[in-house]
Structure prediction request, 197 residues.
Amino acid sequence: MPRVSQDHLDARRRQILDGSRSCFARFGYEGATVRRLEEATGLSRGAIFHHFKDKESLFLALAEDDATRMADVVAEQGLVQVMRDLLAEPAGGTSSAPGADWLGTRLEVSRRLRTDEEFRARWAQRSEQLTAATRARLKWQRDAGNLRDDVDVDVLTAYLELVLEGLVSHLAMGLPAAHLPAVLDVVEESVRRHRGS
Prediction:
């Protein structure tokens, strides 16, 4: 039997994650049945669960993949850029912009954190990645003299994470978003260092 290349396995894993992202976003965790996951990925249950132990592991891998993508954006451009990307492409994700599928996954993570203690314990290990990236970016900005120095970096990190959660909730409720880029301008300005003239 010929061996499958690592590139093929990686591509198949990516196909599963991309297809399941839209499935979880559309139907939620419970509604993303195996049949729906098969339809969304174009693969059989055997192919899906060859790469992931079960639906829970698939969902955690997907949420972790999204967190890694966000952390990469944070490292390069900051957490406010993640929020701008979400607003810039509400109809679907790209490699740099989270989009509506990311929003659906994020909402499902939030719901499960409230209702599923085991999931909360498993997710805690993964959620620190975004916080660490945000904290590192803010420290870098402070060292460069661009960030206000009268507020602790951990407080600014928590502030930006709360704004992100508020933005996610706002979008989830389908509230108007036209003014949100200006709101993010205010948020960004609020963490900047203002030098005297």
In short: The two ends are 73 Å apart (CA to CA). Residues 68 and 129 are 7 Å apart (CA to CA). Residues 91-98 have pLDDT under 50 and may be disordered. DSSP finds nine helices and no strands in the chain.
